[in-house]
Description:
Number of helices: 9
Number of strands: 35
Bound molecules: uridine-diphosphate-N-acetylglucosamine, magnesium ion
CATH class of the largest domain: Alpha Beta
Structural class: alpha/beta
Largest sheet: 11 strands, parallel
Number of domains: 2
CATH superfamily of the largest domain: Spore Coat Polysaccharide Biosynthesis Protein SpsA, Chain A
Helix content: 10-25%
Oligomer: single chain
Strand content: 25-35%
Amino acid sequence: MPVSLVILAAGLGSRMNSERPKVLHPLGGAPLLAHAMRAGAMLAPERVVVVTGHGAEAVAKAARAEDPDVRIAHQVEQKGTAHAVAQARGALDGFQGDAVVLYGDTPFVRPETLEAMLDARARHAIVVLGFEAADPGRYGRLVMDGDTLERIVEFKDATDAERAVTLCNSGVLCADAVSLFELVDRVDSENAAGEFYLTDIVAIARQKGLSVGVVRCTEAETLGINTRAELAAAEEAFQRRMRAEALDNGVTLIAPDTIHFALDTVIGRDAVVGPNVVFGPGVTIESEALIRAFCHLEGCHVSRGAQVGPFARLRPGAELAEDVHVGNFVEIKNAILDEGAKVNHLSYIGDADVGEKSNIGAGTITCNYDGVFKHRTVIGKRAFIGSDTMLVAPVTVGDDAMTGSGSVITRDVPAGALALERATQDIKPGLAIRLMDRLKALKAKKNGV
Ligand code: UD1
Ligand code: MG
């Protein structure tokens, strides 16, 4: 049975106290919305619809970054969750199959749970994801009759007896798409909030004699983010899960609690990560690579056997081939380092190609920016760049070439050549001692000795 997703993301999230739409707040370096989309993507959906409202343009952009084929349905006014689902009708026109409704602010729903819901659809017209809440608070309550869900009552509309129910609505549900839109059409807004509640489709379905079932998950899985404090708690939970997964996958984390992952971090087996390392979005570390303490990596690829850090920064577009060494206080951006290249100390390598086995001396800088444009530095194979070389791009250093320490290289260096750019050294015999004696005498005079 084909599946489509409807992800509700129109709400403002006023309790975040933010200019930014709630679903764009980051968790593990990715917007909350991306987490929900990724969980749903595991179902291999035929269509994915994101319902936007507050900050619609930015939300649509983030949705497209996660899935270029996403369909955007705009909800001009936020009149409730049923009204939000109704906006997806056009995007699902002609679609035959199940629709799974997810919330953009609920990042931890597991793909396995969604699978279980789809399985339960064999027995029920609608399947709702429920959970036992430690503190049910303002959640919608699931009113059961045996194994059948009779209705969902929103907290605001519930009687004391209904409020005592601890089985709550996560918001995730699944139904045949055509039936879902039919049911949603029959929802009214006669309730305490004056909203069109998606939850009302349950009672409407029961009146039509349709069966409604519940799949249960843990409360942690349905955790919704409403406040900054909840976002911080979610980040902690996310990091804990990522650390455990990395350890399970055969990665050595020397001090797991100090390592921070992004949603898409990939680390190969037998890689070793030292303490206090931060992985921003888009990092792949291959097997047997070593990331030493206090590194910050983002948008980069570190190949097998490469060594990075301590205190190194890899920025987007940093591509390290096998056995590359990048040492302390080195920054690499948009640069390809071929096999066995070494940049061990205090360097900036940006917009560059560094050939295999080349050695970049301490303090070398690729001067890539003229204030307006960025330019590329190309260094060949087995080149030796002397310490404190300024490579003023665009510039090329050929295979097996050398640059003298302290040189400012503004012209291309042919293969095999040595480029030197500095003043000739003068030697004044004895002058150091004479100068020092004079200075000492001056000081003594000043002090009245
Ligand atoms: C909803 C459920 C409640 C459930 C709870 C779980 C309803 C009526 N209630 O309540 O049973 O226990 O979630 O967290 O569904 N949204 C839109 N457009 C709208 C309204 C909401 O896109 O017009 C989106 C929001 O951005 C959010 C989601 O739908 O992602 C849920 O909306 P929210 O207002 O948080 O619903 P709750 O009151 O929490
Ligand atoms: Mg909510």
